[in-house]
Amino acid sequence: MPHNTLQNxxxxxxxxxxxxxxxxxAGSVHxxxxxxxxxxxxxxxxxIESEVLMQNxxxxxEALEVTELDKILSSPGPITIFAPSDRAFQKLSxxxxxxxxxxxxxxxxxxxLTYHMVVGELTASRILQAMxxxxxxxxxKTIQGNEILATLEGTNILLTDCSGNSARIKTEETNLSNGxxxxxxxxxxxxxxx
Length: 194
Hints:
By secondary structure, the protein is an alpha+beta fold. The chain has two domains: 1-40; 47-184, Roll (FAS1 domain). 45% of the residues lie in helices and 21% in strands. A seven-stranded mixed beta sheet has the order 2-1-7-6-5-4-3. The chain is globular. The termini are far apart.
């Protein structure tokens, strides 16, 4: 083999090697850029890990813990919960609230809490669609077994319980791994809350 051909092959191999190194460096820099610019999406929190729930719904979280429903709300789901705020619980008589939260009344509390839950992802738009199909109202069966009536009051979705008590949906959180949380302004009940 002539010397020039050997030298040309060596130069060609060296250039190819340099080209591969440049591609590896460029790929590494590009990957680092992407990871800094577009961080990988974090896992969505479960219902029980909702930041809004943790901040403004401490009474509800305590009640969920007493009944062990907190374990269900951190499982895959999907579940929709109509979550009364601390302020909503304060509307109840202090006797009713303390009775509900005592471990001796776990069964009664469980009925009340599961009345605030529906199986599936029931977003506000799905509630509105059901109301449109129902000529202004929709009925949803709760996990407890009784139904909740949804209607419109102005621009608010109004939930009415079996006793005629009502609660307005204030906001919703849908970016959760296992369902939807609707934040409501009153406690609803399958029976009379007071």
